[in-house]
Amino acid sequence: AERIQVAGEPLPDAALAAALGEALALGPDLTFFEAATLAAFLAFRRAGVELAVLEVGLGGRLDATNVVPAPAVGAITRIALDHMDILGPTLPAIAREKAGIAKAGMPLVVGALDADVEEAIVAVAAAAGARVERATEDAAAQTLVAAAPLGLAGAHQRENALVAAAVGLRLGLASDAVAAGLAGARWPGRLETLLTAEGEYLLDAAHNPDGVAALLDHVGPGSERPEALVFGALADKAWAAMLDALAPRFPTRVYASPRGRAPADPAQLAARHDGTPCPSVATALAEARRRVGQGGRVVVCGSIYLVGEARAQLLGLPEDPPVAL
């Protein structure tokens, strides 16, 4: 239900069941993501949604969300190496797939990009009849973001906020409404600090090298208090590159397997960078806390599934079974 939200709230179970039932009846042979996308469209229509924000699932050109006619505005934030087996081996190749959302007459807002990446996006957009608009050249958006407090942590979120502000202004939203949205944004599991009776935890869903770089930039080069890393990743992710970047910063390391698709074996992680493999996320959290004490900080990252499970356990929240492609 969290994948389909109306007015900021996950779709209620009854509405989700109705939308999924209708979607599967209309397209019994749809893939998982195609069925979920169609269910979202049906739910939005039933709820009378006036403005829908569609997040592409993978790439853009061939994504299920890309069946919509020209949107009021599109956006592309920074491009990172991920899903390279599907999207291509280089940043420009991935950018061309992302830019496949461009449609005739549509403004396509982009954030700060490398020259070759932007060149690829501009070429695809021009062929589709869309116009690329750089958020970094939008004076109104820049002024707004410079003065606005952000609800999300991390220096990279200011770049994202600039794209979001440029999109909001193009939709005709008032500046104070955009500023309120930036200040009120919440994203559980993204550089999220939890203060519990056992001590402090920092949860971040960094699951590729670019996300890990943003996490390391946020935590800085070192800390005077004890810290431990709880790390786990899916086997098809670039876990070795992520761990190579994290290991020098976090000498105390604990490994666990996220639920979902096939995980990287904690023993394999420990073989690359010495650490303690654990049989479950719960035991990994307990071991990390034992190593740093109540005054230390435990950092959890490497997989969205791992962070979701850890967050539920730390906050005593109910857990749904993982839904993975």
Record keyword descriptors for this entry.
single chain, 325 residues, alpha/beta, 6-stranded mixed sheet, 3-stranded parallel sheet, 11 strands, globular
Written account of the structure:
With 325 residues, this protein is α/β, with parallel strands linked by helices. It has 13 helices and 11 strands. The strands form 3 sheets. It has a 6-stranded mixed β-sheet, sandwiched between helices. Strands 3-4-5 form a 3-stranded parallel β-sheet, sandwiched between helices. A two-stranded antiparallel sheet has the order 1-2. Helix 5 (115-128) links the parallel strand 4 and strand 5 (131-134). The radius of gyration is 21 Å and the shape is globular.
How is the topology of this model organized?
Layout: E1 5-6, E2 9-10, H1 13-26, H2 32-47, E3 74-76, H3 84-87, H4 91-98, E4 107-110, H5 115-128, E5 131-134, H6 139-147, H7 156-170, H8 175-184, E6 192-196, E7 199-203, H9 209-219, E8 227-231, H10 239-246, E9 253-255, H11 266-272, E10 276-277, H12 281-292, E11 297-301, H13 304-315
Parallel strand pairs: 3-4, 4-5, 7-11, 8-9, 8-11, 9-10
Antiparallel strand pairs: 1-2, 6-7
Strand content: 5-15%
Q: Determine Rg (CA atoms, Å).
A: 21 Å
State the helical fraction.
40-55%
Count of alpha and pi helical runs = 13
Sheet/helix structural class: alpha/beta
Shape designation: globular
Main sheet: which strands, in order across? 6-7-11-8-9-10
Query: Which regions are unreliable across 5 or more consecutive residues at pLDDT < 50?
Result: none
The averaged pLDDT comes out at 93
Main β-sheet description:
6 strands, mixed
Number of strands: 11
Element pattern in H and E: EEHHEHHEHEHHHEEHEHEHEHEH
Gap from first CA to last CA = 16 Å
